[in-house]
Amino acid sequence: MPAQAKNTTPKDTFISHLLELRDRLLRSILAVLVVFLVAAPFANTLYEYFAAPLMAALPEGNTMISTEPHGPFFVPFKFAFAVSVAVAIPYLFYQLWEFVAPGLYAKEKRLVMPIMASSTLLFYLGVAFAYYLVFPIIFTFFASTAPEGVAVMTDIDAYLSFALKLFFAFGIAFEVPIATVLLVKAGVTTPDRLAAKRPYIIVGAFVVGMLLTPPDIFSQTMLAVPVWVLFELGVILSRRMKPDNADANPDNQADSEDINDDEFDDGDMNREFAAAEKELDKL
User: Fold this and answer.
1) Tell me: the pLDDT tens digits for 111-138?
2) What gap in Å lies between CA 228 and CA 214, rounded to an integer?
3) What average pLDDT does this structure show over 227-235?
4) Residue 184's pLDDT band (boundaries 50, 70, 90)?
5) What is the structure's pLDDT at 87?
C-alpha cells in the first residue's frame, strides 16, 4: 500500500477529478430530464399559466398567435424544459457542493451551504417578483399604448423569449445581498465603504436595468428599485458579518492587510516555492 501511494501522480489525481466532474454533470442532466418527463405532459397547461399576465392585459377579443407552423407544439415544451431546469436548481447546487466540498476548509464549508440555499431562494423570489408584480404592470402599459388600429397579438415564441429574459434578469438582480455579504466577508470592502458609494450603486442599478430589461422606463425602474433596496439589505447584513481581522478604521484595516501580506511574502512564500521545487523534482 505505501508503494501504491507513492506511485500516485498529479495526473492520476487530475483524471479522478475529471471523472467525478463527469459523474456530477451526468447526474445533473439526468435530474433535469426526469423533471422534464414529469412536466412534459402538462406543457400546455404550464404555458397557459405562464402567459396569464399577458392574456389578462390584452384588449378584449385579442389573443396570442403563433407565426411558425411548429410553434404551438414546440414552444410549450421549451417552457416546460425551462421550468424543469428551475425546479432542479437545488439538486444542481447540491452536486456542485459535493464536487467542491472536499477542497474547502471547515470555515468555508460552513459558509457555502447557507450561501447556496439563500441564493436559490433569492433567485426564486426574483422570478416570482417579475411574474406577479412586474408582468401585469408592463403588459398593461404596453397594450394601452398601441396606436389606433393596431391589434396587440403577441407571438407565443416571442413572449417566451421576452419573459425568460426578464425572469433571468430579476433572478440575478435579487442576488445582490449575497454579493454584498461575500465582498465584506472576503475583506474586499467594508459596510461603511459600500454605504459611501450608495449614489454610484443607485446609478449602476439603473444602468443594469437598462441593459437587462426591455427598452422602457417601467421595467428598468422596477428592476433598479429592488436592486437598490436589496443592496441596502446586504449592507445591513454585512455589518454583522465583518471579517475577524476587520478594524473599525478602514485605514487601519488596510495597514493590517499590508502587514499580513508582508509576513506571507517573507515566510510562507519561501516555503511555497520550496515545496513547488520538490514537486517538480519528483516529476
Assistant:
1) 777 888 888 899 999 999 999 988 988 8
2) 19
3) 86
4) confident
5) 93
| Residue-range definition of the domain harbouring residue 10 | 1-172
Q: Same structural domain for residues 69 and 186?
A: no
One domain, residues 59 and 123: yes
If asked whether residues 101 and 137 sit together in one domain, one would say yes
* pLDDT band, very low/low/confident/very high, at 243 (cuts 50, 70, 90): low
CA-based radius of gyration for the chain: 25
Q: Quick one: 63 and 146 in the same domain?
A: yes
Mean pLDDT, all residues of the chain:
79
What cell was used for 156? Answer: 407565443
Structural domain count, the chain: 3
